[in-house]
């Protein structure tokens, strides 16, 4: 560490910048870590102090590090909390190759277009598993008539159907004026940020979490702080420390088949989380989009345990795919009205057509059976996947899949860097490394539902080859 390659034909201060960025990206330097003093760095690098100062000034300007009076120079935690995404200098980005995360995503997006690649990255069901329903033929006049059944809260027949399902499936007693239909769960989150938070406010989320990759928080000026997960879910002790030090205004969790880890928060941890939210009067937003894909009995939802403290988000997209973007927010009437007004103010129109399609599917007499058939198919796919994965258990740690779409695997051997994950791209295996969701470089998320009997053997053959290569590094 702290040694330069003097054969590089670039200025020394840029070499220092490149090395520090590499250390941050591969986890050798973590958010909040203190760098050695400028004089010490100059002695270590055998350069003038002014060269070190120049490099550090550039890194401060780019957002990679910060200087704090009395604390020295620290790796930036930034607006994104533990997984800070520094501001990007686009001129340098076009010229240099520092940003391994962005480079990985660019290559991944290119390979997603290739029919030769095996896509285990995309976060939805493959088309052949999405239940099919016979839809009636619609005339334009019919849709215009259905449009008249739409209120500011959504298409009334769909609202009623969702209310019925919530009462039956999740034991949550709600009325139609406590449910707002949205164009998917992301729009629901956007509206909540606009109505409940202000620029500069802090939100606690799980670490790792798919939320780190969403731009809506940075756009709204919201600071995200990650709370470590253990086998029971979000660690409440760490969360309380964040509440005290970072003035947390909202707790946002995905407690059932969490994305990316696939874990389900225990009942005891759910109760502890609710108690903490009551203690500090902080609302909980429960992102619950995977619970209908369960292989096992689930603990009560947070909304069922604490109807007044919890805002509940649901979605049909995990069953019907992203082409049918239907989600909903369950909250008290006053908040629902404010959210509906906010949507009107930003001119988010909600098309009646996908709502009519969703209503037709939910009213299908075979819907419940088709959903159960889907769950049975996924359960068998999960067991087939785990059977093969056990052959690699000396190198990869994993937990049994109990529902949802994802398996989360952690490398047991020496530390990996972000560059190592390009081995998967080289083999045309498209997976989601943990650094897309946190600072971790040792784990990956796999959408196991996209593996069938034909490509399962292909995947594990390549996975074994990659495992062997990683062990040799």
From TrEMBL:
From the UniProt record, list the coiled-coil ranges: 368-395
Q: What SMART domains does the record tag this protein with?
A: HTH_GNTR (SM00345)
Species name for this entry? Enterococcus alishanensis
- Protein keywords: Aminotransferase, Coiled coil, DNA-binding, Transcription, Transcription regulation, Transferase
What is the protein's name according to its record? PLP-dependent aminotransferase family protein
Q: Does the keyword Nuclease apply?
A: no
InterPro entries (alphabetical):
Aminotransferase_I/II_large, HTH_trans_reg/aminotransferase, Tscrpt_reg_HTH_GntR
Q: Does the keyword Coiled coil apply?
A: yes
Q: What is the lineage of its organism?
A: Bacteria, Bacillati, Bacillota, Bacilli, Lactobacillales
